[in-house]
């Protein structure tokens, strides 16, 4: 059950590297997740332990946390290296690890909290309760869950729940996709997904009749739950996660800032929620989600099944609508626009073959757009902008500051003066300086406040400056500057000492796992993972697909359903297909067979070499 009272809420942002991580913090993140040097579910987003240590030191000044993704399944021979790496990450100051492989729980670990990755396929109260009982301190839920399902899990557990609110969507349940491993040997559970879901497919029926061709039938839109944040909080969610450890820094800046503003607006109305870190971010731009990479937006299944979760036309970033073509003239055209264009903008359109093409704007004069080479556009064609050059130029510069509020008091003592600083997290220091006091000819209060408030490029800003002198003493500006600098240095040191990360060791327990048998879907790739499940009552444990590839088993489990997309769902739409099942998806020589599990409301995908 959720605890009552003022609940801390975490905005969790992604970081491809150290720069992205720092910018995520500056732009309002309460926590950042970043890839380890190895064993992360985005193999192209690894980072050195040294960079992670620097990011931890930076984040902890604001009370923000750093989580490291160590969420692949591990081979037997990799366990010793994983154990050494975990100790290094703990020494670097990491606040928690995001893991998938249960073998990690049986290693010799430092007291570092473990978060259950969404790769564990966390979608039932029973599974989440088990993870809580064995010691996980946060659980990342499956993206496909409805609000009612999330609320049910929250009502039956007390572990903090983390949900995705923004970014790219895997079409399969996370951790339950083996398509890439089967077709290319690149396992999604090893961080090497080849993204077969983004390819164009031809859909045919059992008799070879073509249903649709050249469409990205497994490609989903991107998640956007910015309008459902309050509902998620009320359902019991404590951590709101932005996807994107492969995204550029401009994406991290813009999306993090947008969600920071939306959450702060909720906190201003709802006193039962508060942010989980300190400091306020100010932005030099107006965040706008549509200006960052996206395939179109969907809240996904939060309120149940809906028709607008896919983008069959393109897996690329379409951009925001900007208008339609009016007339062509040489290397220019006029546009009936809904938004102003800029020199250098990137525009996109769908060509005559239905494929997405793009071009750059050379210059704009009123509603006339000039290009270096004439794109294959025609009148009345819709245009989109996937690069707003002015917006990108703004984000390429420093675009946010994050300041911690400090109360400052300047007073006298028998030997000179004292400066006291108290920062919003509770850290406080006092600086005393001996000084031969003498009365001033004019009141010093204004100058004292002005000089002490000059906190410049430090993480602090003066919320109040109180002058509490017994007499109108003369105080040189040089002394005030010296005391201010020393006060800031000591306050920074006090904050580093004061920061206390959570420490947690897994407690041995005989809590039973919700299932007695684990198939290949359990992703058990090493002896320690198998020993973990057997210790918790699992009687039969099959090896992971990556250890023992199989034929004639589902390679993907997805709540996206092509029968529903075509209007033929017998349960919800009562539509009748003119085609004969089974249906197939074909890409070059790859042939995939579809099966529909209506009881579980999901589609299963198999590899096949024949029809």
What key phrases describe this protein's structure?
alpha/beta; 7-stranded antiparallel β-sheet; 611 residues; Elongation Factor Tu (Ef-tu), domain 3; 13 helices
Structure description:
It is a single chain. The protein is an alpha/beta fold and 611 residues long. It folds into 4 domains: 7-169 and 221-277 and 285-291, TIM Barrel, CATH 3.20.20.70; 172-219 and 518-611, no CATH class; 316-395, Translation factors (Elongation Factor Tu (Ef-tu), domain 3), CATH 2.40.30; 400-498, no CATH class. It is 23% helix and 27% strand. The chain contains 13 helices and 31 strands. The strands form 5 sheets. It has an 8-stranded parallel barrel with strand order 1-2-3-4-5-6-7-11, surrounded by 5 helices. A 7-stranded antiparallel β-sheet has the order 18-17-21-15-16-20-19. It has a 6-stranded antiparallel β-sheet with strand order 9-8-29-30-31-28. Helix 5 links the parallel strand 6 (138-140) and strand 7 (161-167). Helix 1 (18-26) packs parallel to helix 2. The radius of gyration is 28 Å and the shape is globular.
